[in-house]
Amino acid sequence: MMGRLALAAVAFAALAGSVPAQEATRAPGAVLRLLDKTAGQVEDVDLFTGQVAQLGGIDIAMGECRYPSGNPSGDAFARLDITERDGGETLFSGWMIASSPALSALDHARYDVWVLRCKTS
After folding, report:
1. pLDDT digit string, tens, across residues 11-27
2. For a tag site, which of 6, 36, 55, 59 has the least CB within 10 Å?
3. What is the DSSP letter of 110?
4. Contact 97, 115 (CB under 8 A)
5. Nearest to 77 by CA among 57, 49, 93, 97
6. pLDDT in tens, 55-112
7. Rounded distance, CA 48 to CA 65, Å?
8. Of 78, 85, 76, which is closest to residue 53 (Cα–Cα)?
């Protein structure tokens, strides 16, 4: 069993190495969606790089947004820092990917935040 796992890992690494890296373009900001699960409210927010939005009991700081070069409507990924306003606890710090919101998600009892797209203008 262990030998099969090792062989699969080597095969996957070889395939991954043969896939060309996709060039990404930086955007001036992103469009995020916030869900307040307690109030049942959904809000779309435009954030520019370096901007902080205060929404409900959380602060969302926009690091940057990138999208595939030549495809502005393609898969967006944004660097976000999300903190709780009371106490300043970091709830999320990292990259969120528009096409896979569950891959790197905010884990909070009240709020869900996800990336919709990069802002191109």
Report:
1. 444 444 444 556 888 99
2. 6
3. S
4. yes
5. 97
6. 889 999 999 999 988 777 778 999 999 999 988 899 999 999 998 888 888 888 999 9
7. 9
8. 85
